Amino acid sequence: MSATASADTLSSAETSERSVLLLWMIFTGLSVFAVVVLWRYGLLHLMVVSDRTYISSVIAVLYILTCGHCFWRSRAIAREGEITRRCRAILSASGEPRGLDDMRALPGGLVPDHIRNLVMKAQAQPAGRIDQTLLLRSLADRLRGSNGFGAFVSDTLMKLGLLGTIIGFIIMLAPIATLDAADKAAMKSSMGLMSDGMAVAMYTTLAGLIGSILVKIQYYMLDAATQRVFSDAVMLTETHVTPTLERRHDG
């Protein structure tokens, strides 16, 4: 019964961590499908041709690079989740935390490094409660890593879209100063420039908004997965590591 429950727990943890990459792949697959549909109907080509500033193209390239970074971070978090699961299995094997006796039994990773730091702290301090608050803050920062890059890129894409809006309105309003209502040819040319400016403003704004939203969604899922790994690490250390270290220290 106990073995079955343990196997179910490990299986659910493994599935949970694999879902980090699975969610990213599903989201990216839907995004690629949307891009293919837009390209099929010529909307992407129209956006590239109409945007004389190429800001929308820059936004698209930056978004693709950010997707690559998010995939790299998702793999890292999935790997840390799997390492945490293995640490739990080692420390709870037969009810004896044998991984604390031989730290080489633990795999390499951020959570095992945190456990090793706890052991070193317990050996260095006098008897008493082991406070891992500062070490947990350090672990949280290390797990988070470069996840903040997503917020930076999302904000940058939004501002690039606004920059395109301003440039588009400048292009649109520039002919008005020299507009002569009696000159029909000049009026026609001015209307063309105004139309081009409006196209720049609209397409860059649209690209910036969509890119910003999609980046936020990806990194929201990444942050949620990171928080789950951190919570698992806290539960692991509070239930298996610190009680054993305090008991050994006091004994």
UniProtKB/TrEMBL annotation:
It is a multi-pass membrane protein. InterPro entries: MotA_ExbB_proton_chnl. Residues 141-229 form the MotA/TolQ/ExbB proton channel domain. Keywords: Cell membrane, Membrane, Protein transport, Transmembrane, Transmembrane helix, Transport. It is found in: Cell membrane; Membrane. GO terms for biological process: protein transport. One of its GO terms (cellular component) is plasma membrane. Pfam families: MotA_ExbB (PF01618). The chain crosses the membrane at residues 21-42, 54-72, 160-177, 197-215. Belongs to the exbB/tolQ family. This is Biopolymer transporter ExbB. It comes from Bradyrhizobium lablabi.
